[in-house]
Design a protein that fits this description.
The protein contains four helices and no strands. It has 109 residues and is mainly alpha-helical.
Length: 109
């Protein structure tokens, strides 16, 4: 099985969020509710974005143009200066939960 940089990032981020400190603090603030089922490596925000697979024909610049267009930029907008991040928002996990878990993670660093 090939694991790329994006996969490693999701695994690392999920592992960090599943630390005992963060889970216990979340449970303390939410009446014992365990956040673990909401923390899935494949659903972590991807802060090292690029084309999904190394063997895809898209170049990084092509990918940036596609992502910029999806974000509402005009197709011919220069993207060289842009840093694009793919953010995953699963419909079943609220933004509030994501924000809170990130806040708890940041407070432990």
């Amino acid at each position: 099985m090939h694991i790329n940089l994006t996969d490693n990032f999701g695994i690392q981020k999920a592992g960090d969020l599943l630390s005992n400190i963060i889970v216990e603090e979340y449970e303390a603030q939410h009446g014992g509710i365990d956040p673990s089922p909401l923390i899935i490596p494949d659903h972590m925000s991807d802060e090292v974005s690029g084309p999904e697979e190394e063997d895809e024909p898209d170049t990084y610049d092509d990918w940036k143009c596609q992502m910029a267009t999806l974000a509402g930029f005009r197709p011919k907008t220069p993207t060289l200066h842009l840093k694009l991040l793919e953010v995953i928002h699963p419909q079943w996990r609220s933004a509030a939960v994501c924000f809170e878990l990130d806040f708890l993670y940041d407070s432990t660093q």
